[in-house]
Design a protein that fits this description.
460 residues, alpha+beta, Heat Shock Protein 90, 3 domains, 5-stranded mixed beta sheet, HATPase_dom
Length: 460
């Protein structure tokens, strides 16, 4: 039970109530002692009135008055005259004198604790104000033992009462905590366990019901988390199914393209000048398509092949990309330009970087053509002290907000209607495999610019 939240709350409540009672105990004992001594002074004052009303008093009556007041003598001071009103033999010396007239709370608490722990019977003198202004002061001498005995009885009553209050308070708070906190928390935990059994089932997502603000906030946060998790699991399942389908399509497409590759060998022997000029590009395109199918099959196994790093001329590779895109542009009013130093040599995988630059240029072409406006696409490159920098800039309409928000995320970052957003995700992964970075440098109504940075040093 002590390992539960409600059990620990029960124990802590009892402890804190007892601690509060202990803090109350000191002033309570001081107050009880003060009242006890004040009562003895009032009894002594009443006893002295019997003597003041007559000239003489019988010794037996005087002894009885002192016994009833539980004091040995009574002295009054009136009109600056001190007078011993009642007296009897004192059994010993006075051990201490207590003046109640100007005693502070701290002094009263200190004297009460001293008296409570001092078990030795002592003779004490007590001074105070007479009741009803019957003089300047009244003084009595009395034994301390009856006072200590009364204080012990009072302390025991306080402790017993404190224990009862602690138990009752703890039980009430225990029941309240179980009802208001523990039960709702257990309900949330039970719902989490139900959801964990089938997280894909949207019906198991928690429905916030608590009227306690903090618990409701926790339920709403849990609902958001479960909703996102369920959506992610459903998306992963769709991606897995799509991956299997793509792998099967790529397998068959690779076989078809391999056959087409054999046919292009005959085309290369044609004497037609136009065919001779275009045949190498057709062969290169089919070769890249076969390579892409093989890469897709590897991607279906969650294995993007590591880049094969070689030193090559970037201007020649970009020229191939631009020539292929010009064929796709046809008669549209869209220009392509290159700004690559002819001698720029970079280290990377030519096939993968062809895909990277080709995807970026293709995306820019589709965006401009889709807008129905004229435009320009430029591929530029430079090198700094640490990296080769390649920029693909266009004058298109820019990326929509959703595409910028989910950039480089598959099936979420599509920039055009009907697009799946796979292109940029693949490009980002290929660049990362080179140890580089891909970022959207800018995007507005005036166009977009993607920047690729490929490190010159060895990849970590």
């Amino acid at each position: 039970m002590l390992n539960s939240l409600s059990g620990r709350f029960l124990v802590l409540t009892a402890v804190f109530v007892m601690l509060a009672e202990v803090l109350i105990f000191l002033p309570s004992m001081a107050r009880f002692r003060e009242d006890y001594l004040t009562d003895r002074l009032e009894r002594a004052q009443i006893a002295s009135l019997a003597l003041l009303s007559v000239d003489t008093i019988d010794p037996d009556i005087e002894a009885e008055l002192l016994a009833n007041a539980e004091v040995y003598n009574v002295a009054l001071q009136r009109n600056l005259t001190r007078e011993l009103i009642l007296s009897s033999p004192i059994p010993g010396p006075v051990a201490a004198t207590y003046d109640l007239r100007d005693a502070s709370a701290l002094i009263l608490m200190r004297d009460a604790m001293v008296r409570l722990v001092d078990a030795e019977p002592r003779l004490i003198r007590v001074i105070g104000h007479p009741s009803r202004q019957a003089g300047d002061l009244i003084e009595v001498t009395m034994q301390s033992a009856p006072l200590r005995h009364a204080m012990i009885e009072y302390a025991l009553r306080i402790l017993i009462l404190s224990a009862v209050i602690s138990v009752i308070t703890a039980v009430l708070l225990f029941l309240a905590v179980r009802r208001l906190l523990v039960k709702p928390i257990k309900g949330v935990v039970a719902q989490m366990q139900i959801y964990a059994e089938a997280p894909e089932d949207a019906r198991r997502i928690i429905k916030p019901r608590s009227r306690v603000r903090e618990l409701r906030e926790a339920e709403e946060a849990l609902k958001s988390l479960e909703t996102q998790l369920s959506a992610s699991l459903r998306q992963k399942e769709r991606l897995a199914q799509l991956g299997g389908a793509v792998a099967r399509v790529s397998h068959d497409l690779r076989n078809i393209l391999t056959s087409a590759q054999l046919f292009t060998d005959r085309i290369e022997t044609s004497e037609d000048p136009a065919v001779k000029r275009l045949a190498p590009k057709l062969v290169g395109s089919i070769t890249r398509a076969v390579s892409l199918c093989e890469t897709t099959l590897a991607f279906g196994k969650a294995e993007e092949p590591a880049p094969v790093l070689t030193q090559f001329n970037l201007a020649e590779l970009v020229s191939e990309v631009v020539e292929a895109e010009r064929l796709a542009i046809g008669e549209h009013d869209l220009s392509l330009s290159e700004d690559i130093p002819a001698s720029l040599q970079i280290r990377g995988d030519p096939e993968q970087l062809y895909r990277v630059i080709g995807n970026l240029v293709r995306n820019a072409r589709q965006a401009i053509l889709g807008s129905g406006q004229s435009g320009e696409i430029n591929v530029a490159a430079r090198e700094d002290d640490e990296a080769w920098v390649i920029e693909v800039t266009d004058t298109g309409p820019g990326l929509p907000p959703k595409a910028r928000e989910h950039l480089f995320k598959p099936f979420q970052g599509g920039a055009r209607k009907g697009g799946a957003g796979l292109g940029l995700a693949i490009v980002a992964e290929l660049v990362r495999n080179h140890g580089g970075t891909l970022r959207l440098a800018r995007s507005s109504e005036a166009g977009s610019c993607f920047e690729i940075r490929l490190p010159m040093g060895d990849m970590g």
